Amino acid sequence: MEYPQPYTLAATAPTVPPHPMLVAVVGQQYCCPHPVDLAIVRMVLTLADKFTVTDINSNVVFKLGVSLLTLHDHRVLLDVAQNPVVTLRRKIMTMHDRWQAFRGDSSDPKDLIFSLKRSSLIQLVRTELDVFLASNTSEQVCDFKIKGSWLGRSCVVYAGESNTIVAQMHEKHTFQSIAFGKTNFMVTVHPNVDYAFIVALIVILDEINQDGRYKKTHHHQQNLPTEFPT
C-alpha cells in the first residue's frame, strides 16, 4: 500500500516546540518534523455526515468512509487514494463509550492499534478521555489523554498523564461553513506526532459527541436511562 509522503503537507509557522520523541501510532509515514495544521470539514446537513480532512492548502489528506447501515458504530478512515488506514469500532453495551481502532480495514484483535474510553461516567461540560495503545493491556495508566470542551472545539491531546501537548484543536467559523451547514475546525499536530492517529481520535470524539446528543434526546423522550451496564 502506498502512502502520501509526509513532506507533501504544508508546514505551519514553527511556533510550537518540537516533541522530544517520535510518536508513531498508526505509522511513521504520518510523522512530520514540523508542526502540521489540518482542517476538519464536516457536512452536517446530509443523510450520512461527510467528514473530510485537508491541509492548509485545501489538499485532501483523509476522508471518512461512512455507511447508513452501521449508524455510529463503525467508521473507516481513508487516505487520498481511498485506501483504508484505520477502522474505528464502538463497543456496544459499555458505560464508558469505549472505541477500538484497527489497522487498515481489519477488525482482528491482532490488528488493534489503540482503544479509547471516557475517563469518568459523568462529564457534563468538559470532555476527558483516556487512550490506551494495544500493548498497554493492563490499562492502569493511559498512554494519551484528551481534555477540553468538545462543544467549544478546544480539546487538547496530551502524552499520558503529563502536561506535554501532542495536538490541539480549535473551531474555525467561515461564511461558507455557516451557509452550507458545515462544521469546520483546525487541528495543530506537533512535530514528530502521528497525524493519522490524531485524526482518528478526532473522528471518535465527534462520534461520541453525536451519540451523546442522540442518547440524551432519545432517552429523555422515553424516560429511559442513558447508559447500559458493562
UniProtKB/TrEMBL annotation:
InterPro entries: LOR, LOR_sf, Tubby-like_C. PANTHER family: OS07G0230700 PROTEIN, PTHR31087. It holds the Pfam family LOR. Transmembrane segments: none annotated. It comes from Acacia crassicarpa. Belongs to the LOR family. This is Uncharacterized protein. It comes from the Eukaryota.
